[in-house]
Amino acid sequence: MTAHSVPTANALYDIPGPQTRKRHRLYGIVSTVLILALIGWVIYLLFDTDQFTAAKWTPFEYKGIQELLLRGLGNTLKAFAYAAVLSLVLGAVLAVGRLSEHRPVRWVATVLVEFFRAMPVLVMIFFIFVALKVQPLPALVAGLTLYNGSVLAEVFRTGINSVERGQREAAYALGMRKTQVTTFVLAPQAIRAMLPTIISQLVVALKDTSLGYLITYEEFLHAGKLIASNLDYDLPFIPVVMVISPIYIGMCMLLSWFATWVARRQRRNPKTEAVGVGPAQPGTLMPGGR
C-alpha cells in the first residue's frame, strides 16, 4: 500500500476504507436509479393524462395570459421587497431590544419576539385583513414582516452573541460605548456568520408571498389560479403548476446565489482581510536599543 492510499483521519469522521467506499458507491448507484425511475414515472403519468396536449398549453400563447402572469409576478416581487426590508428592520430593532441592559425593554422585546414567532403567519395575515380591514397588500406585508422579523431578531441576537467575548472586552477597553461596540465591532463580524440564515429566512418570506391569494391579493399564484379555473380550456391546472413552480424555484436559487456572491465579496474586502506581518529583519532594534 502506497503512502497515497493510506486513509487519513479527519476531525469529523474517519476516512472510509475500500469496502465502505464500495458500499457507498453501490448506495449512490441504487439511489440514482430510484430517482431516475421516479422522474420517469412522473413523466409517464403526465403524458398518460394528456398534460402536454396543445389544448392545455394554448392559453399561454395569448397576450392577455402573459400579461396576467407578468403582473402577478411583479406583485409577488413587490410584496417580497417590502416584507424583506421591513423584516430586516424589525428584526434589528427587536434584537437590540433583547440585548438591552434595561430589563423592561428586554422583556417587551422578548414577549413580542416569542408571540409573533409562535403565531402562524397565515393567522396573522387573515387577522390583519379581516379584523383590521386592511387592504390585501399591506395585510400580506404586515403578516410576513411580523413573523419573519421576529425570527430574524433571534438570528441577529444569536449572531452577535456568538462573537468572541474578547472582541467585546477589547472594544470596551479602548473606551468605546455599547452602541459603538455593537455597530463597529460585533455586527460586522456577526453578519458573515448570519448571512446564510438570513437568506434562508428571506427565501421563506418569498415563498410565503403565495399566501396572498387567500386574501385576494393578485400575486403570481393568484394569477395561475385564475388561468387554471376561469378559462374553458380543459382546466390546465398541471401546466400552470409546471410554469409557475420553476419560476418560484429560480427566484429562490437567485436569492441564494446573491447571498453567496455577497459572502465572497466580504471575504475579498480589504477591510475584513487579515493584514500580513512581514518577518523580522536582522539588526532591527527596539526603541531605545543600541
Keywords:
single chain; flat; 0% strand; 290 residues; mainly alpha
Layout of secondary structure:
Elements: H1 18-48, H2 54-57, H3 63-98, H4 103-118, H5 121-131, H6 136-161, H7 165-173, H8 178-208, H9 220-230, H10 237-268
Helix pairs in contact: 3-4, 3-6, 3-9, 4-6, 5-6, 6-8, 7-8, 8-10, 9-10
Task: Provide a descriptive summary of the structure in words.
The protein has 290 residues and is an all-alpha fold. The model is unreliable at 1-12, 272-278 and 283-287 (pLDDT under 50). It has helices at 18-48, 54-57, 63-98, 103-118, 121-131, 136-161, 165-173, 178-208, 220-230, 237-268. It is built from 10 helices and no strands. α3 (63-98) packs antiparallel against α4 (103-118), α7 packs antiparallel against α8 (178-208) and α9 packs antiparallel against α10. Helices cover 71% and strands 0% of the residues.
